[in-house]
Every structure is written in structure tokens, then in C-alpha cells.
Design a protein that fits this description.
transmembrane; mainly alpha; Glucose receptor Git3 N-terminal domain-containing protein; 7% strand; 322 residues; membrane; Rhopdopsin 7-helix transmembrane proteins; transmembrane helix; two-stranded antiparallel sheet
Length: 322
């Protein structure tokens, strides 16, 4: 059913081979995201039962489900993989990681900060959509059917900018900048002054420590930081660029397979997030580490670094001596 006007009348037509293949691929991508998220929720539930049994027996709990702020962010991220709130939560994870690694920030034990961040991210979009709906004019619907999705109609096109494109652009830019800085910092190429993270400089790094302890590799750890911005860009930028071009053109059919190539990564975002977190932060959401912890970072789920700045070490030693 494809919309041709503002009324409820729709025209029926057969989908082309490209559209049919794209729709089927989109459905499979969405189902894979949902299944991946549900599997994680089931695993987390099993870990919660495990922790409860350990607690009843008076035994030590391997790891709490919500042990750090990142656990809260990740759980919300899995719940919101089908909405544009994903970008905001990924940015929150980027800011949290950046502050912990570069500023040696120790998050408070409570979860007030992540709860406030998540609520603000959700309220931002809810408030904007409420404003669009409140501005509805008689006879002109707020949402309209366009090829294969429902979006804010052209008559309220101003609402698309802050609710989708601005949100996506800012969150992607923040995530990319912070993770690239983390990549350079972990490798020792970026020096951040202990008196303020805005005072920074680039330098030629010392020879990298390739291996620390059992299985910690400096190159792998630094490259993990690049996985997040790459994932965020692939997930959001082609999707919204294609929706912008097709949506504002008000086309009634999709002839190019490149449209589906651009939007399918977004539909499979849930599966991608699960794989990304499993590869880069395996100890989140109650998973106990099977390897002895190397005390290079405070938390095994945090990025580790092995190139402290000599000037920072000297400053710290002077402060201790005084």
C-alpha cells in the first residue's frame, strides 16, 4: 500500500523485484536484531538467577548485573535499538569511556548519572514529536506513508531536522571525535594534561607495549576504539542520507538497490550492537571474566592503556612528595 495523497486512499501495485528483495532483506535484518537482543536479555536473566543463588548460599557473586554505569547504558541501548535514541546512548558510552580513561574519573557507585542521561535522551525526542503533533493543522496529517516507512509529512518537514538529522549528526560527530582521541591516547600519541582534558597535545609515541600480561595487546585495544565510530557511521549516516533524499523527493517507488544497501545496516543495528559489545566489552551485564585481570585499567570492561605521559607521572610524583 503506497500513499499518493493526504487522505486515507491508497493505490495498490505489485512490488518490483528490487523492492520485494529489499523488503524481505529488511524484515530479516529487523528479526535478527530482535532475536539478538532477546538472546542477550535471556542470558542476563540467567546471570541474575545465578547471582541470586550465589547470594542465597552466602557465596561471592562473580559480577553484578549492573556493576558500572556502562551496564545501565548498554541495557538501555539494547532496548532502544529500533529507535534513533541509539545514537545518543552510544554518545553517552563514548563520553563515559573518555572521562574514565583520560581523566581517571571514578564514576559514583549509584546510577543517578546514567538514569538522568537516558531520561534526557528520551525526553528530547518525545518533546520534539509532541511539538510536531501539537502543531497539526486540520486536514493535514502529521505522519504520512512514503515508500516502505512512515515519517513526518512534508508539510511538517521542519520537525525532521531536530528529531532525526540533527540528533544523528551531533551524536555521530561526538562519538567519532571522542573515540578517535581515545585511540590516539591509548597508543600514546595524544597527551592530555592532568589539570584539564582540554589541554592536550600530539606527540610521537614511544615504542608500543605489544603485550601486557596474558592476552592484552596494545594494538588490539587501541583498534577497538575505532570500531565504535565506524559502527556508528555505518549504522546511521547512509540510512538517514537515503531517507533524506527519498523522503523529501516524495517518490512512490524505489528502483535502485542501493537504497536498500544503505538502510539495511540500520535495520540490523541490534545484531551489530550485540556483536560489537561482545567483542569489545565482554564483561558487561554480569559476565564474569575467565582470565586474570591485568591492572592496567580500573574495570575489565574499560579500555586499557600502557603509555602514561612522562610529564603527568612527574607532576604526580611532585604532588606526592609535597
Amino acid at each position: 500500500m503506497l500513499s499518493t495523497s493526504h487522505d486515507e486512499q491508497c493505490m495498490k501495485r505489485d512490488l518490483s523485484r528490487v523492492e520485494y528483495a529489499g523488503v524481505m532483506a529488511g524484515v530479516l535484518a529487523c528479526v535478527s536484531s530482535l532475536v539478538a537482543a532477546m538472546v542477550v536479555f535471556a542470558i542476563v536473566a540467567c546471570r541474575a538467577i545465578r547471582n541470586l543463588l550465589h547470594s542465597l548460599k552466602g557465596e561471592r557473586i562473580p559480577r553484578k548485573i549492573f556493576a558500572t554505569h556502562l551496564d545501565v547504558y548498554v541495557m538501555c541501548l539494547l532496548f532502544s535499538t529500533s529507535t534513533e535514541a541509539v545514537g545518543g546512548i552510544l554518545s553517552a558510552i563514548a563520553v563515559h569511556t573518555f572521562l574514565v580513561v583520560t581523566s581517571r574519573w571514578t564514576p559514583p557507585k549509584g546510577f543517578r548519572i546514567p538514569i538522568v542521561v537516558i531520561v534526557c535522551a528520551l525526553l528530547y525526542r518525545a518533546a520534539l514529536y509532541a511539538a510536531v503533533v501539537a502543531s497539526k493543522r486540520q486536514g493535514i496529517p502529521v505522519f504520512e506513508r512514503t515508500p516502505l516507512w512512515c515519517t513526518i509529512s512534508n508539510d511538517y518537514g521542519w520537525g525532521r531536522i531536530p528529531t532525526a538529522y540533527l540528533w544523528t549528526g551531533i551524536s555521530t560527530a561526538v562519538s567519532t571525535v571522542l573515540y578517535v582521541m581515545l585511540f590516539l591516547y591509548i597508543r600514546g600519541n595524544l597527551v592530555i594534561n592532568s589539570t584539564g582534558f582540554w589541554r592536550m597535545k600530539l606527540r610521537k609515541a614511544p615504542p608500543p607495549i605489544e603485550q601486557v600480561g596474558g592476552e592484552f595487546s596494545m594494538n588490539r585495544q587501541s583498534l577497538k576504539m575505532l570500531a565504535y565510530p565506524i559502527f556508528n557511521i555505518v549504522l546511521s549516516v547512509p540510512y538517514w542520507a537515503m531517507r533524506w533524499s527519498v523522503g523529501y523527493a516524495a517518490q512512490n517507488s524505489i528502483r535502485s538497490p542501493w537504497y536498500f544497501v544503505c538502510v539495511l545496516p540500520h535495520y540490523a543495528g541490534g545484531l551489530g550492537i550485540v556483536i560489537l559489545l561482545r567483542l569489545t566489552r565482554p564483561t558487561l551485564l554480569g559476565r564474569a571474566s575467565s582470565q586474570p585481570k591485568v591492572r592496567v585499567a580500573r574495570e575489565s570492561s574499560e579500555p586499557k592503556f600502557a603509555h602514561p605521559d612522562p610529564e603527568q607521572i612527574a607532576d604526580a610524583e611532585c604532588m606526592e612528595a609535597s
